[in-house]
């Protein structure tokens, strides 16, 4: 069998610990035997980031702007313990933060739905994708403790020095205040990313906030979404047979729980933070969540939503057997290969990616899985496989499909 050719490279961002081990196994077993893989390789492992003063992260993001599609392995975000463990020159910033800032994107997280791993909400049949606005609000707030009675105000001073003021509160005694901001341009690119992803995946887009209480702040989000939808997307959504609608966040929560899934739920920064963990847990497993960063210009970076699975890595280093779930990392690869195929008009590549996804799910549905899934599955008589054997089983299934 001849290998599938590629015309344009993918940007490949290698990473750390157990996911770095899985990365190589996935390439060796599931991709290179079938695809004449072309990638521009960047090693985002912590050793290399430290060696290059994190320049490699910036370079990989710039390459992604150029080639439009990247696949990323999970990476360590350094903390105090990592400073010693890796003898770091500096506590380098989160690579995901750096990449997101360069691509100006929105992160979409979606669970991989498979028979045998059942959501806690029985009527959820299709994935629910969370789109979280990743700028501002609580995450860039300014807070103050008010020690005693006094007046707190918000003040805006324009370029000519003219002030506008609003009273926050007349305090009788101690209290607290908080200032938040967002930027119209950031909300606009968030809205466009959500609408583009809706068109891309043929799913409805819901946006929810608390505009009834926050009549200026949240209402601005609502207005910007509506204006961009009406002016730029309405016709295309109608042609694609999908919908956009806004609803109050309380109403959205009720609708989400009663739905059967299959839509994109766009949320402000804090709401998205909380709801994406709720959705991941309710669908069954963090190891089954995918994540894709989409820029308003149509640049895509695919990854697993989980981290580097540090505990398994230390076992692996000691020569002990691991049973680490590679599904979300495989789906990062298939997401990227499928998108590369779409953008290049390379149907064979997209078809291959879809078959690899199918083979992964069929393997689990046949009762062969890693330990994390065996602990929560509703299937009977399952076989628990180690990291390597699970990938080899998927390869066997894939061969039956090709
Ligand atoms: P983690 O996602 O690696 O692990 C969290 C828990 O889920 C652990 O109990 C782990 O055993 C389990 N788990 C996660 N993925 C699994 C898989 N594929 N198979 C089986 N079990 C799995 O998160 P953590 O332990 O908080 O962080 C470890 C490292 O990962 C940290 O250095 C952190 O900075 C990094 N991290 C990176 C990313 C990213 O690159 N996107 C995201 C989160 C954390």
Description:
- It is an enzyme of class 1 (oxidoreductase).
- Residues 9-394 form the Isopropylmalate dehydrogenase-like domain.
- Its cofactor is Mn(2+); Mg(2+).
- The record marks 139, 210 as: Critical for catalysis.
- This protein is α/β, with parallel strands linked by helices.
- The protein has 3 domains: 1-116 and 300-402, 3-Layer(aba) Sandwich (Isopropylmalate Dehydrogenase); 119-141 and 182-283, Isopropylmalate Dehydrogenase (3-Layer(aba) Sandwich); 144-179, no CATH class.
- Helices cover 45% and strands 21% of the residues.
- The strands form 4 sheets. A 10-stranded mixed beta sheet has the order 2-1-3-14-13-4-5-12-10-11, sandwiched between helices. It has a two-stranded antiparallel sheet with strand order 6-9.
- A hairpin with a 5-residue loop joins β13 and β14 (300-304).
- It is globular, with a radius of gyration of 23 Å.
- The structure holds nicotinamide-adenine-dinucleotide.
């Amino acid at each position: 069998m001849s290998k599938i050719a590629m015309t344009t490279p993918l940007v490949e961002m290698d990473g750390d610990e157990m996911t770095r081990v899985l990365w190589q196994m996935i390439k060796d077993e599931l991709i290179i035997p079938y695809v004449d893989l072309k990638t521009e390789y960047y090693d985002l492992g912590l050793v290399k980031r430290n060696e290059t003063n994190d320049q490699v992260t910036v370079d990989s993001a710039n390459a992604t702007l150029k080639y439009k599609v990247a696949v990323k392995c999970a990476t360590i975000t350094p903390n105090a313990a990592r400073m010693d463990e890796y003898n770091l020159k500096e506590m380098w910033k989160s690579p995901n933060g750096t990449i997101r800032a360069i691509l100006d994107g929105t992160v979409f997280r979606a669970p991989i739905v498979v028979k045998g791993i059942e959501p806690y909400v029985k009527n959820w049949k299709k994935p629910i994708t969370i789109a979280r606005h990743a700028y501002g609000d609580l995450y860039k707030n300014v807070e103050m403790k008010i020690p005693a009675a006094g007046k707190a105000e918000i003040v805006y001073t324009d370029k000519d020095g003219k002030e506008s003021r609003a009273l926050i509160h007349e305090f009788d005694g101690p209290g607290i205040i908080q200032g938040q901001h967002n930027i119209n341009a950031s909300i606009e690119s968030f809205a466009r990313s959500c609408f583009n992803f809706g068109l891309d995946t043929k799913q409805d887009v819901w946006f929810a906030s608390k505009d009834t209480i926050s009549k200026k702040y949240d209402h601005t989000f609502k207005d910007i979404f509506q204006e961009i939808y009406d002016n730029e997307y309405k016709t295309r959504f109608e042609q694609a047979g999908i919908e956009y609608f806004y609803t109050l966040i309380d109403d959205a929560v009720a609708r989400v729980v009663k739905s059967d899934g299959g839509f994109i739920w766009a949320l402000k920064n804090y709401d998205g933070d909380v709801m994406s963990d709720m959705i991941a847990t309710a669908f069954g497993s963090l190891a089954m969540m995918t994540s894709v960063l989409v820029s308003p210009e149509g640049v895509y970076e695919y990854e697993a939503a989980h981290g580097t699975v540090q505990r398994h890595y230390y076992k692996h280093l000691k020569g002990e057997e691991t049973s680490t779930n590679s599904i979300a990392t495989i789906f990062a690869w298939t997401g990227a290969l499928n998108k590369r195929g779409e953008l290049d008009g390379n149907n064979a590549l997209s078809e291959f990616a879809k078959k690899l996804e199918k083979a992964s799910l069929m393997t689990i549905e046949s009762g062969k899985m890693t330990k994390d899934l065996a602990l929560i599955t509703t299937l009977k008589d399952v076989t628990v496989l180690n990291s390597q054997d699970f990938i080899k089983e998927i390869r066997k299934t894939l061969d039956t499909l090709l």
